[in-house]
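hiii, so i know i said id send this last week but things got crazy w the move. better late than never?? heres the sequnce for the chain we talked about at the cafe, plus the structure i predicted for it. fair warning i was half asleep when i ran it
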Amino acid sequence: MIIAVDFDGTIVEHIFPEIGESLYNSVATLKRLIANGHDIILFTCRTDLPERKYLTEAIEWCRLNGIELAAVNSNVDKTLTFADKKPLADIYIDDRAIFSIINWERFEQYFESQGFFDNESD
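okay and structure toks below
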């Protein structure tokens, strides 16, 4: 599966332009998804500007926290040309979605119930 995930307010607390603390279980759940073969797209409004590299900071934060991104604001499959404004994903997780309450514990339970973690050896 391809999962597009927002950054501020979704993976971390929303205190832009700074990077907030990670939200409960966000890092662990994303790392579990990656370990089970799912691709994570960082889908964020952050951008790099001459005065500060906001997007680069978010990408680096993910890297330092062990979240290996398959893509950033783009499709995992670079040959897709029809979806150049919004990355193609199976699931989108964003704190700004209607009725969205970011609860990584419930997300993890959902992913478990759907068999997203079948490849684990623990």
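btw The chain has a mean pLDDT of 91. thought thatd interest u
miss u guys!!
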